[in-house]
Input
Amino acid sequence: MEQKVLLINGVAELLQVSASTISRWSEEARNGNSRFPLPISVKGGKRRWLLSDIESYLASQSTATSPQSTTSSARQKRRSAKAFQERQNATDIALGRYRGKGEQ
Output
């Protein structure tokens, strides 16, 4: 199953905020102060976001007004880290398959 990935500008456009806001929200999420989706790392240290993660985040924000309005417990932080690693692994596999198709 291939997943669509977005660059920071694509995420910013989708959420109608600036790229620097996306960077700030991502840093807050990394610190456990937000539920904003963490980016995945691809070759060269580039950051990408899974469209499905952004869509899930938007759905969860129906009552909240910003990523800063949510707090995370230690348990939620551990779950987020585990989920991030699982997403990263799935993305690595998907990108490997995608790159393999281009070489044929």
Remarks:
- The chain has a mean pLDDT of 80.
